[in-house]
Write a structure and sequence with these properties.
- This protein has a domain at 116-209 and 249-331.
- The chain is mostly helical.
- Helix 29 runs antiparallel to helix 30 (823-832).
- A five-stranded mixed β-sheet has the order 7-10-9-8-11, with helices on both faces. A three-stranded antiparallel β-sheet has the order 1-3-2. It has a three-stranded antiparallel β-sheet with strand order 4-6-5.
- The chain binds a DNA duplex through helix 8, helix 10 and helix 13.
DNA sequence: CACTCCCGCCAATTA
DNA sequence: TAATTGGCGGGAGTG
């Protein structure tokens, strides 16, 4: 009742948005006659204006009965009209009416308030962007129409457009099914491909011919890179519409909508003027281009544009041509889509139960990494920022291909990330699994990785995001890009925050941080870059390390936070997670820029991470450099690295387990020393899985730069170090994963033996359902994908190690494209290769952990990894051990 | 005046 | 045949 009252009130107040319709209905007044009749069927002329009456009306409207009401309404319409006109007498009405009317009229919602765009936003607000796969949301047109207070006709306008993008599908007569944005990127991709075939040339062509240059400059020609992929697509292709009859549907708003979207996707500038679109569409339609048609087309385009705007896919802009300014729309949605969807699909089936659709995509994403190993992908969720940047860039600097590429790449990643994330969420279910966040980095680039690993079957597996913290990830939305700027704020997208959307909605680039999402099946390694700053700071001597770490933690966090804030991340985040209920979530974190790894020196870089969306990726250090560092015996570095480890451990522990951090330090130091001796072996930190984490294990490389490790203030665990998380499921697929980081030094080890050992170990682990393993290497990065392991001298081929094809593929695909991520691919390759060293993780861990790992020699495996290092051996063993343990008893 | 685009008639489709 | 969809274009707000 309250509600109704309110609504009732609303009409009076100017503001209200409510039910326009209702108001109309009320509009029983004579004036309104023509309009809608409404009235309550029940009693057409009863006392309208009593409060009660209003309530009733509203109620009826709201209720499912609406339908009836409407029907009646129609019936009555004539009646009312006639009556009213005829019987002006209803005095009662009049009297009341006057007052009512006046207000009514006054408040009469302005035209804008009734706009289709606004209506669409309201409509969209009712459904989650990324609904859980499990629940099917059905939409009743009548219901929605009544709730939103509009005529059904309007709802059709919205729904038709949404349907064209597959956000909804029609299931029955008055029923639509809400799908959300899960398939949006896929749909867009399809449209893009189709668009290229159909319009690619056309666009280019037309633009030129028609002299439609934009002020920005002419559009470049587009290259139609892959048009070949598909045969022509019919519009219908997108399934929903499919083959339905051609008749009316041909002109359908749906088709127009798809075509319109295609134009954007094909356009280099991503800007399409209305008249061009109208012309193109008309031609296709074969309509003669007469003026009236044109006008009509434009009208329709406005309708579509309003909906797309609400979806955050486009925004209105003006293009100045010779003749003057013309209305146009700019695409602000995702630009790049994951590579071939088909390929993607390949992904290992093991894990996901999810509907396969997008999953594949996720796998692809592996990418970016940062520093050392970059095994993973980045998915960034930053909402729109990157996109934004990209877009801007495009518009303004169409010429710089390189940048564009990056941008695209970023966009793509983001997009992917979003998708992945969503998937994951779905998979995991509402449960907490969702996401996580991360945060991190102190300075410049911090990357946040929220990810979750979904394990099939294992609910725990997932990492949860911090609830409050950074990401407010609401299940529903993370819109990747989708949210339009403006809208986002409005709609509740919690998601954005992390991403850094600014308040305005503008995305800031946050520079950073792309989030990583991994498909359950996939593996990843995260590499954190070190930050220069951190490094320098952290560099403390080994001995100090422990202290340092502590300090670092304390100190850094705040900084980080601030930083973030500066970036704009509004997210509440603040306290990052450590506090989080660790159990569920794991957060990982991440480090900052990848770059840093390489250079400890280059402090100079300002934190502009934001500038480059791809920063995360970009971070990739040059392999060579990287390598050098690694190889270099620099003790200090090692120390640092180690120091980092401890931190990580602590953090993680805190986060996840709450174990004592204290213990770690000592252990760490200890280890560190050992490490120091060796040039650089990769060290890994193993994080014990906590309850929540049980599903995965983390290994962090000890080598990592300390900086990275630094914790975020909150303890966000930002791990700068590269770490790998592997879901158990994942393991199954891969017998081994390891990154051989040490390329050089290690080489001496007998490959064969080694390999054997390695394989053995891993295999075991793999068997164990529980633990996943990761190995990260410090790695070497080879430039590019090239398989050649120039880097590793030693690489015996181990059959055992191989990445799943999928991964490989995906990696390569991804990597190749993006310049930024160059490093990553390499990593993968290495992985594939049997790099010699499997891991050597030196495990450093807090006492607790140690227990697990415990040690060095203890391992049962006789096998010993043959590495040069005993330590390595130990590590491996420890790892195994850990795995075993975990498998048996999760803690 | 040019843009926008709401509104709702009414025909094509469906049930 | 009735109801549902949705094309279409007049013409009203806006700037």
């Amino acid at each position: 009742e309250n509600i109704f009252d309110r609504s009732r009130m609303a009409p009076k107040t100017p503001i209200k948005n409510e039910p326009i319709d209702l108001s109309k209905q009320k509009g029983c007044t004579p004036e309104r006659n023509p309009i809608t009749p409404v009235k309550i069927t029940d009693r057409p002329q009863p006392d309208p204006w009593t409060p009660t009456a209003n309530l009733k009306m509203l109620v009826s409207a709201a209720s499912p009965d609406m339908r009836d009401r409407e029907k009646k309404k129609e019936l009555f319409r004539p009646i009312e009209n006639s009556e009213q006109s005829e019987t002006p007498d209803s005095l009662q009405y009049d009297i009341v009416d006057d007052s009512t009317v006046d207000e009514f009229e006054k408040q009469r919602p302005s035209r804008k308030q009734k706009s289709l765009g606004l209506l669409c936003q309201k409509f969209l607000a009712r459904y989650p962007n990324y609904p859980l796969s499990t629940e099917k949301t059905t939409i009743s047109l009548d219901e929605v129409a009544s709730i939103l207070g509009v005529e059904r006709r309007r709802i059709y306008d919205i729904v038709n457009v949404l349907e064209s993008l597959h956000l909804v599908s029609r299931v029955a007569k008055n029923q639509y099914c809400w799908h959300g944005r899960h398939n949006l990127s896929q749909t867009l991709k399809t449209l893009q491909e189709a668009g290229e075939l159909q319009y690619g040339e056309l666009m280019t062509f037309q633009h030129k011919e028609q002299d439609l240059e934009y002020k920005f400059g002419e559009q470049k020609k587009e290259t139609l890179p892959e048009s070949q992929d598909r045969p022509l697509l019919d519009f219908s292709e997108p399934d929903c519409t499919s083959a339905s009859a051609n008749s009316r549907k041909d002109k359908s708003l749906r088709i127009m909508s798809q075509k319109f979207v295609m134009l954007f996707l094909v356009s280099k500038t991503k800007i399409v003027t209305l008249d061009i679109a109208a012309k193109i569409l008309i031609e296709e339609t074969q309509d003669t281009v007469d003026h009236s048609k044109f006008k009509t087309k434009v009208r329709r385009l406005y309708d579509i544009a309003n909906v797309l705007t609400s979806l955050g896919l486009i925004k209105k802009v003006h293009v100045t041509e010779e003749r003057g300014r013309k209305p146009a729309f700019k695409w602000i949605g995702p630009v790049e889509f994951p590579g071939k969807s088909d390929e993607l699909r390949g992904h290992s089936p093991t894990s996901d139960p999810l509907p396969g659709t997008q999953r594949g995509a996720c796998a692809q994403y592996q990418t970016c990494a940062t520093g050392k190993q970059r095994f993973t992908r980045h998915a960034s969720f930053n909402s729109a920022q990157p996109c934004e940047a990209a877009r801007r860039k495009v518009s303004s600097e169409p010429n710089s291909p390189h940048q564009e590429r990056q941008d695209e790449y970023c966009s793509k990643m983001i997009n992917l990330a979003a998708v992945c994330r969503q998937k994951i969420e779905e998979d995991t279910g509402n449960k907490a699994c969702d996401t996580e966040t991360i945060l991190n980095s102190a300075k410049n680039s911090s990357i946040t990785l929220p990810f979750s690993l979904p394990v099939p079957g294992d609910s725990d597996f997932c990492v949860n995001p911090l609830p409050q913290a950074v990401f407010p990830v609401v299940q529903a939305d993370v819109p990747s890009l989708s949210l339009p700027i403006g809208i986002s704020s409005q709609t509740s997208h919690p998601s954005t925050p992390a991403a850094c959307k600014t308040e305005n909605g503008k995305p800031t680039l946050v520079p950073n941080q792309p989030f990583l999402c991994f498909p359950s099946s996939s593996l990843f390694m995260l590499c954190g870059g070190l930050q220069e700053n951190n490094l320098s700071e952290t560099l403390p001597t080994p001995g100090e390390v422990g202290n340092r770490s502590a300090e670092a933690q304390a100190a850094i966090p705040p900084a980080v936070c601030q930083k973030r804030s500066s970036h704009k991340c509004t997210s509440p985040s603040a306290p990052v997670d450590d506090e989080e209920p660790a159990a569920k979530k794991q957060t990982l974190e991440q480090s900052e820029l990848p770059l840093s790894l390489v250079v400890p020196k280059k402090p100079s870089e300002s934190p502009k991470a934001e500038s480059s969306p791809g920063s995360g990726c970009s971070s990739a250090v040059h392999p060579e450099t990287y390598r050098l560092n690694l190889t270099s015996p620099a003790a200090p570095e090692d120390a640092d690295k180690e120091s980092t480890k401890p931190l990580d451990c602590q953090e993680q522990e805190k986060r996840s387990q709450n174990k004592d951090p204290d213990e770690l330090p000592p252990g760490n130091e200890h280890i560190s020393k050992e490490n120091a001796n060796q040039p650089f072996q990769p060290q890994y930190l193993y994080v014990q899985p906590t309850a929540g984490l049980s599903s995965f294990n983390f290994l962090f490389s000890a080598n990592q730069a300390p900086g990275a490790i630094s914790l975020a203030a909150n303890q966000l665990p930002s791990l700068s170090v590269p770490c790998v998380m592997v879901p158990s499921a994942a393991l199954a697929s891969f017998p081994l994963i390891c990154s051989p980081s040490f390329t050089s030094p290690l080489s001496p080890v007998p490959d064969s033996s080694f390999s054997a050992a390695a394989s053995t170990n891993f295999s075991v682990s793999s068997l164990a359902s529980t633990t996943p393993v990761f190995v990260s290497t410090t790695a070497v990065v080879t430039p590019k994908v090239s398989p050649a392991p120039s880097v590793d001298p030693q690489q015996p081929a181990h059959p055992a190690l191989h990445l799943s094809p999928v991964l490989t593929r995906s990696c390569s695909a991804v990597k190749l494209d993006s310049p930024l991520c160059v490093g990553h691919p390499v990593t993968l390759l290495k992985l594939q290769q049997p790099s010699s060293a499997p891991l050597t993780p030196k495990s450093i861990r807090p006492a607790h952990h140690e227990a697990f790992f415990k040690t060095p020699g203890s391992l049962g495996d006789p096998v010993a990894w043959k590495k040069n290092d005993g330590s390595q051996t130990r590590n491996a063993s420890s790892v195994q051990r850990r795995l075993q343990i975990s498998s048996t008893s999760p803690d």
